[in-house]
Structure formats: C-alpha cells, structure tokens
Amino acid sequence: MSDMLKPAFVHRLIKEKGFNIKKSLGQNFLIDGNIARRIVAGAELSRDDWVLEIGPGLGALTDLMSKEAGRVVAMEIDRDLIKILTEYHAGEAVIVQGDALALDWREVLEEAGWQGQRLKLVANLPYYLTSPLIMKALESDLPIEVVVVMVQREVARRILAQPGTADYGVLSLAVQYYTEGELLLNVPPTVFIPPPAVDSAVVKLKRIPRQISAPREQLFAVIRAAFQQRRKTLRKVLRPLLDEWGLDREDLERAFSAAGIDPQIRGERLSLDHFAALTEELIREV
Ligand code: SAM
Q: Which domains does the chain have, with CATH numbers?
C-alpha cells in the first residue's frame, strides 16, 4: 500500500515538512486504502488510458493510478504540495503546478506527451470548486470518456437527481446532457486528514452520445430560466426569455402546446427530453 494512504505516515510527513493544511484550498487528504482502491477500480484503468487528475494532494490516488494507467497527469495548485509530490512521486506521474480551473487541459496533456490516447478524469475534488470543475470536464472538447470524482454527498445527490425531486436542477440536467451517472460509493468524513464537515460520495459519469437536436446554448437558457425560480410555473418563469428571443406570449403558448407540456407545471418536473422539445418549439417560433 502507498505510504500516502497510511495515516501515521501522512501525519508524520505533514509535521516533518512543516506543511500547513489549507482549508481554503479544500485540502482533505484521503487516508483509506480501501476507498482509494475502489475509486481507482471505478475508473477501470488500463495501460491504454491516460488519466487527468485534479488536486493530487499528497498523491494518494496518483500513486495507485500510476500503477494501472499509461500515464497520470496531475494538476495541483499548492506549491508546497508540489515539492512533496515531486520528492515522493518523481518519475511516475507528470505533476503540473497550477489552477485546474484556469489551465488549458489540452496544452497540459500535450506538453506531457499525450497524443490522443483514451482519457479519463479521476479526482478527489477540492469541494469549493466541484461544480465548475465538473462542468469544465463535461464541456471540454477533449475526448474524456469517464469522470470519476469524489464530491460532497449533497452534490452527488444533485448530480444524479431525477425530475420531480428537490435535488433536481441545472447540474443534474447538465450532467445528463453529456453522460450517464452512477453512484459508486458513499464516503464518511473519518477517512480524511483533516475530516471535512460534510459527507462525501464518489460518482462515475460515463460520456454517452446524446440524440438531442436542440442547440445547447438555447436549451440551457431555458433550463436555467426554469430553475431560477423553481416554485413558479413554467409559463411565468419563461416570460423573461420572450423579449430576449423576440417572442410574445402567444408564441410561448403555441410552443407549450406543440411540445405537449402543461405551462402550469414547474420546471423541476420536466425531463431533459421535455426541455429539449420545448426549446425546439420555442426556436420554431422565433
Ligand atoms: N487527491 C488528494 C487526496 O485524495 O488525498 C487530495 C484531495 S483534496 C480534497 C483537493 C486537492 O485539490 C488539494 O490538494 C488542493 O490543494 C487541490 N486544489 C485546490 N484547488 C485547486 C485548483 N484550483 N487547481 C488544482 N488543484 C487544486
């Protein structure tokens, strides 16, 4: 087992290096070998795979993945951790210092020698950036086949939520637009140093080709409008879009009727296919 998954080793290392754990960077280091192995197993790595990791921390997952994948490329923002990572993981993974949200992932990969090999993203994410990092992965033009990430349990619920539930929202629909999601495991706070204030969960998102013809930008404008005031009826929440799209109330009613959607219901009841149908009918009215 990697030393980085042994609590006593991690405690000693942090002390010896005088490393200050930075809460502001979402630093909660995984120290449970069983959970680390289950996360890595969830990614189903082979030597043909390249892995992009966000926030390797002390390298708990990095180590394991380097043994199974063709190459691991890990982006870490904290320079203090970079020093420790390069000392303990030299020659295995490619470690890049920088903000994963700002970095150009294609550039990072190509500099590491990536030439279009199969790509997976695996990370125990910094929780303050969960949604933007997931969205960056989904919207990326890189061929990321699978995303396996540890997130707050509450975010996992939102990611995997179905229509008609309180957790269902823009994030659920964005994830569904690109992928098929699955809960891999629930994770308690006790397996981290320091323990986070919230429960965690690991989700696996597999990219699937979707047959949705509604253009993405307009589809998500409708979805965002529907969830901006989730207690109101669709008829009410979509009115602000009308001016923007040059439509009037009659156009809106016609679109509802052509899409077979009751304007009195709330957006939280609509599936992705319903939203797509409504968007297409609205575009027809423009
Ligand atoms: N992967 C390690 C593990 O499982 O023990 C650490 C996970 S910890 C929850 C999140 C990591 O993300 C930390 O190492 C933190 O420094 C790093 N991080 C935070 N913000 C980042 C950013 N914008 N870009 C890259 N790494 C970041």
A: 3-207 (3.40.50.150), 216-285 (1.10.8.100)
Which residue carries 């994963």 as its tokens? 100
Q: Compute φ and ψ for 79, nearest 5 degrees.
A: -60, -30
As for ligand 1, residues whose beta carbon falls within 6 Å of it are 25-30, 54-58, 60-61, 75-78, 81, 99-101, 124, 126, 129
- Angle formed at CA 97 by CA 192 and CA 135, multiple of 5 degrees: 70
Ligand 1 centroid to residue 236 C-alpha, Å: 41
Task: Using DSSP bridges, classify how beta strands 192-193 and 29-30 pair: parallel, antiparallel or unpaired.
Answer: antiparallel
How close is the Cα of 32 to the center of ligand 1, in Å? 16
CB-CB neighbours of 50 under 10 Å? 21
Other Cβ atoms closer than 10 A to 15: 9
Helices (runs of H) and strands (runs of E) counted in the chain: 12, 9
Closest CA to 74 of 38, 48, 112, 41: 112
Helices (H), 99-169: 105-111, 130-139, 153-160
Question: What's this model's pTM, rounded to 2 decimal places?
Answer: 0.95
Adjacency order of strands within the sheet including 144-152: 94-97, 71-76, 49-54, 118-124, 144-152, 200-207, 179-187
Helical spans, DSSP H, in the chain: 7-16, 33-42, 60-68, 79-89, 105-111, 130-139, 153-160, 170-178, 216-228, 234-245, 249-259, 272-285
pLDDT tens figures, 37-52? 999 999 999 999 999 9
* Residue 116 Cα to ligand 1 middle (Å): 25
In this model, does residue 1 exceed pLDDT 70?
no
